[in-house]
Every structure is written in structure tokens, then in C-alpha cells.
Design a protein that fits this description.
- The chain contains 11 helices and 9 strands.
- The protein is an alpha/beta fold.
- The chain has a 3-stranded parallel sheet with strand order 3-4-5, sandwiched between helices. Strands 1-2 form a two-stranded parallel sheet. Strands 6-7 form a two-stranded antiparallel ribbon.
- Helix 1 (24-35) links the parallel strand 1 and strand 2.
- Helix 4 runs antiparallel to helix 6 (189-203), helix 4 (156-177) crosses helix 8 (218-227) and helix 4 (156-177) packs across helix 11.
- The longest helix has 24 residues, at 267-290.
- The termini are far apart.
Length: 291
Amino acid sequence: MRQARARVLLKGSGRKKGKASYALQGYVDTLCEDAGVEQISSFETLRNQEVDFVFIATKTYDISGVQEELKENCVRPKVVVLIHNGIIKDPFDCPTVRVVVPQGYDFVETPGKGCGVKILVKNEDKPWIMPNTEAARKVEALLSKCNMPSCAHPHFSYLMIRKFFINGVANLLSIVADTNCNGLLQNHRKTMDNLYDEIYKVLQKPHADAFKLMPDNFYSIVFEGLASYSEHHPSSWHDFKAGSQIEIESLNGYVKQLANDQGMQVPETDALLCKLQEMLKQRGRELESTC
């Protein structure tokens, strides 16, 4: 018997875009049409239904809202797949798979050409990494059917922390320094080294399982990983420029919280967060003046 084609739906997060361009929507429309994916505006479309997988690729501050919307519409996922930067507490009560995505994406508007947007991808051939759990292996099998490289890895805890270090020394600093990854490495290495040392000190005890798996050359691995993104601007930089909300609590804010919990001082992290808050206040004033 021929197996029925799976129903695949896509829902946007609905998060505030500030002054960001909506040119990307045309690209999404084209992708969905070509792939036979149905776009929806609300989970009400799936009310009182059980679904095999829900992939949530959004900012960490939006995840609890997605969880509430699923709950309100009585949508029952068998597996939830979380794709995000940073570290947060899992809010779901069903099997959840956290994914570490090594890719970086830059969206370049191309007015009058194709659908109006060109996407530049860094580290395109590297696999998505997941923990080696039963749920993750199901996700891996699903992605393999779509020719999407992925791996349910026994050393996921270490690989997640490795990505956190890369994000921690680069994402929010890219806003303050107003530069891409190359610019950070060339002009802000001392600041990144200080952030690295503070992250290492603060995370060592709470994430002891990951630290046990760290190789001796972990410092080099982190900065070589950052260098692989070259001229890519971190997503936090794009969000700031777009007037969107910034992920703080799950990135360097997470470091600050763990430092407070352990009675540790993190002066470089404090300085970064302070400067960022000043810039966000100034951006807010500028956005209000243009309304």
C-alpha cells in the first residue's frame, strides 16, 4: 500500500519585527509552494489534534509563548524539536529534542531579482547535532528522509556548550562593536578572551558533564569555530538593526545569572550587558522619534 503523504505546516512566530523588511516573506512563500508546505497563522488549525513533530525555530523569549499557544489549542506533539541559541529551561512536558545548528544565515535583499531575497549560508554541510535519545533518533530519521544532515550524538552536552561559547563571545558583542565575526576577531580579541574566561569559570560547575568532555585545545576550537563564520553577522546583530527584541537572558544573561548564583564576579560580562542596555534604550528613543 502506498503511504499517504505527510501533512507539513509552517507557522511564523509572529514576533515583533520592528522596522525589519518583510521581503523574506516572498522567499518563504516560494519555498512553501515548491515543497507543498501549508502556511498557517494560528495553531487553531490543528485544534485537538496529535502531531508527530513540532519544530520550533525561534528566539528563546518566544518559546514559552509557543508552548502556551499549543496548549490553548489542545495540540499534542509527540516530539518537540527546539532550535535556538543560548540555554533555557525546557517548558514542555512531552519528549523534547534540543538541536545545535552550526549554520549561520544572512538574508540579502535583491530587489527585482527572483523572490527578492538571497540567503547566504555558512557551514552549510555541517550536521545538526542532537542528544542521543530515542526521541532524537526519530528526528534524525525524519531529517535523513529530507536529505538533511543530522546526528544524535552521545557527546551532545559538550557540543551544545561549545556552541554556547561561540555565541557567548560573539553575539551580543557584535551589537556593541557593530561588526561581523571577522571584525570581532581582528579588533576585539581581548574583550572576547575576557568573556571566554568568565564563561568558562561560571559554567564549569553547572555543566560539569560537558566540561569533562572538553579537549585540551577547547579555546582554539571555540575561536576557530567563530572564524568559520567569517563575514557573517550574528543573528543578534540583525535583530538589533531591525528594531527587534534581543536574546539576552539565554546568552550572556545566563552567564550573569549563574555567576550571581555562585557568588562570582564577571566584570567583562557586566560591562557588555550594561553597554547593550544603554544602546537598547537609545534605539528605543530613536524608534519612538520616527513614529
